[in-house]
Amino acid sequence: MVKRILMGTATLIVLALAVIFISVVQFDLPREKLIGKYAGGASQFATLPSGASAHIRDEGNPSGPVLVLIHGSNASLHTWEPWVAELGGTYRIVSMDLPGHGLTGRVPGDDYSREAMAAFVIEIMDLLDIDRFAVAGNSMGGGVAAMVTLEHPGRVSALILVDAAGIPVERDANDVPLAFRVASMPVISKIMRYVLPRSMVEEGLRKVFVDQSKVTDEMVARYFDLSLHEGNRDATRIRFSQYANRNDAAFAARLGEISAPTLIMWGDKDGLIPVSAAHEFKARIPQAELVIYENVGHVPMEEVPEESAAAVAAFLAAALAPAAVAEPAPAGETPAMAGDEEAAGEVADEAGAE
Questions:
Q1: pLDDT tier at 338 (50, 70, 90 boundaries)?
Q2: CA distance 252 to 39
Q3: Which of 21, 93, 302, 303 would disulfide-bridge 60, Cβ 3.0–4.6 Å?
Q4: Distance from CA of residue 180 to its chain's centroid?
Q5: What angle, rounded to 10 degrees, do the helices at 198-208 and 217-227 form?
Q6: How far is the C-alpha of 68 from the C-alpha of 64, rounded, in Å?
Q7: What does pTM read for this prediction?
Q8: 55 has which bridge partners?
Q9: β-pairing verdict for 289-293 and 53-60
Q10: Which segments within the chain are labelled E, that is strand?
């Protein structure tokens, strides 16, 4: 009798564990499925000389000055859509999913360093035959934008740092999203290769916004889906392991080399990269302008899009003078990718199912 009870209990435990396992295990999603949902509009794909298959958007005013937008860690080019809507009438805007992110996915060589991502951006600029451009980056992307400026000063007309990484800072561990903390743990991060609760993704998003109404179900679903893009979780684990070799102090020491007009913008309630880093960037780049938004978190381009885009427009109008700023493009006119018509046709076919 006791044996039968024990066996019944064991069976119930196994079944309960199986239900828990099935409910939390998340397998990779194929790229083709995600393209149908998230590669609409101006999305194009191109295979770069490095072997990466890059998801790129080249949109806005085709005859306007070029503005390149670089997203942050575990985000995607979609984070810039509010700025594209606000600035696209004047500027030709190029955005991309960085290696290990969005629809670009894992890349050959698995180098997710700041230097490698800066080289990735330059590969895209070369592909599009764009020699001169302004560049903006948020969070990790801000560090990448600064690296692009340091390594290619003759090509960058202006730099915009939005709650940018690159300054060594101390932060409260509780302010760092749980997903980031897990990705930094070598053993646990391997488990997260298969286990990724949607709630963890939502928790990370809510930490970077002050205005919680901005965190919609649609946003959570997109971040969650793109994190499951085949290879992205492996790339994230590798990227965080590579951070141990990153020397932010040496990078910060180089910031004084930047001579391009620079705008620094920050949310004063950013818990991920505290506002003290904004002042440190300003101290190291003396010509920089500094704008701080009250009651705003880590992503001002999404939380206060109109206000932050207006600041960018005013800054670029002055920074790019006396270069002519183009008139707004006719409705429906968008720039085409140079030199990669085959790839553009490919994404048109793949995204047609949307």
A1: very low
A2: 35
A3: 93
A4: 14
A5: 120
A6: 12
A7: 0.82
A8: 45
A9: unpaired
A10: 43-47, 53-60, 66-70, 92-96, 133-139, 156-164, 262-267, 289-293
